[in-house]
């Protein structure tokens, strides 16, 4: 569920950046583009996937 929320937020940031670009507000567009890129990097982290499983799914 957490991964889905992060993916959704990344999509929101990407679309917000596109909207600011269309309004020629490049400063805000860049801010949201960076936020989306940061979330993309976070989603590549395998630890996040493990943590999103919750303690009940971990096999030690």
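Q: What amino acid sequence fits the structure above?
A:
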């Amino acid at each position: 569920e957490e991964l889905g929320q992060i993916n959704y937020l990344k999509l929101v940031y990407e679309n917000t950046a596109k909207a600011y670009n269309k309004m020629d507000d490049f400063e805000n567009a860049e801010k949201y583009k960076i936020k989306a890129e940061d979330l993309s990097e976070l989603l590549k982290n395998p630890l996040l996937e493990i943590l999103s499983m919750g303690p009940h799914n971990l096999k030690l």
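Q: And what stands out in the fold?
A: The chain has one domain: 2-53.
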